[in-house]
Amino acid sequence: YIKTAFELSEAFDTPVIFRSTTRISHSKSIVSYSDRVKPGLTDVIFTPEPGKYVMLPVFARLRHPLIEERIDNLKIFAETSHLNDVMYKDKSLGIVTSGIAFQYAREVFPNASILRLGLTYPLPEKLIRKFAASVDKMLVIEELDPFLEDIIKSMGLKVTGKDFIPVTGELSPEIVARNAKDFGLPIARDYKQPESIPDYITARLPSLCPGCPHRGLFYVLNKLGKRGSTATGGNKPNEPGLTITGDIGCYTLGTNPPLNAMDTCACMGASIGQALGMEKAGIKDRLVAVIGDSTFMHSGMTPLANAIYNQSKIAVIILDNMTTAMTGHQGHPGTGISACGQSVTRINLENLIRGMGVDDLEILDAFDTREITRAVKAVTEKDNLSVLIIRGECAPLKPSSSTFCFVENDKCTRCKACLKLACTAIQNKDGDVYIDSNMCAGDNCGICNQICPADAITTKDRVSK
Hints:
Layout: H1 2-12, H2 22-25, H3 50-53, H4 57-80, E1 84-87, E2 90-97, H5 101-108, E3 112-117, H6 125-134, E4 138-141, H7 147-154, H8 173-182, H9 215-225, E5 242-245, H10 270-281, E6 286-292, H11 293-299, H12 301-309, E7 315-320, H13 349-356, E8 361-365, H14 369-379, E9 386-391, E10 403-407, E11 426-429, E12 432-435, H15 447-451, E13 457-461
Parallel strand pairs: 2-3, 2-4, 5-6, 6-7, 7-9, 8-9
Antiparallel strand pairs: 1-3, 10-13, 11-12
Helix pairs in contact: 5-8, 9-14, 10-12
């Protein structure tokens, strides 16, 4: 499909969107390679066409008829394209489907006739009408909104879809079969209801890695801001505190309990813009925007410039783990490593921020909770725009520690303070706390040592095998 998408883009001079759903992205299979097409650099020529590439209003009006003509040509192509194919079997039931839902349809209705649409815009109207005329009953099986169903209904054709297929959530053969059966449709076999989680397995939210450099900050924000519901000691609805605008990255997991240290997350770079917007709207809380180093380089500079320009008094905290951890440890402009792994010019984060006009800037060790507490408390009491850079290397990129943390039971008071770190290496069993040495980052982290009020956590050397 990717290869075909590029071919269509060239043939029809059009953007082509390849849509990959979650299930496809999480799947793997054996594939066959075709010969790679790689034009040489000398073959790349740009031909100036202002009427096409300079979208002044006068040119845009001239381009519109050409786009409509392009869509008409694509409609003709769609009618005979190999991307849209019909598999005729039992014609008492016909199914129109696309993407991963095709696999579910084949499994649940193995004897049905199926029209599989690989090109879903524009749709092949003649092919759909021909298919509808050849089957007794037509269904549409698709995830989420009734995109195909609505267009087919607009053709005046009788079709059923969201009458029995959920409009929310991911589909599966079990969901399709169960809903089809309830709707009175014949299915190939019965599917069991998903088994409940056994009592001895505890369901757990995703968590930051043991040794993550973000954990200390979120622990401090939780402690200073009294995050969480009033039932767990949080602020009352009208009680001023910290409002923490978040961003997209590993650190978004700071939202989950027991950290409870992030209040918003919209898109890359939105944390700073949201904090600025809340400030201008009159929110009385001290506003703290949290953003990662990679996300800041991607789209955080613009809202920071906006905050500087608009004389904002928010606090911006940049979690600098020196990589793009969430998507696989890629480089970014602040690492000096290109997407191809080459050493390139590194943009110095602190020099960049100072160059933008921020005078109040401090850089902190991500694993020093005492200093982080001091600095966060200070910036939340200031009346000016301030930036903190919390710097610490991403845990999976660090060499393994020769030590691990250990709980001395005779000193432990069972206060459970260490459990508030949400570190998966720290376990609670029958009221006693212990640390899994296989998971613990040891001296690469040491935050639990710092926050234990009874000094009951120490480090031990790992035994070499």
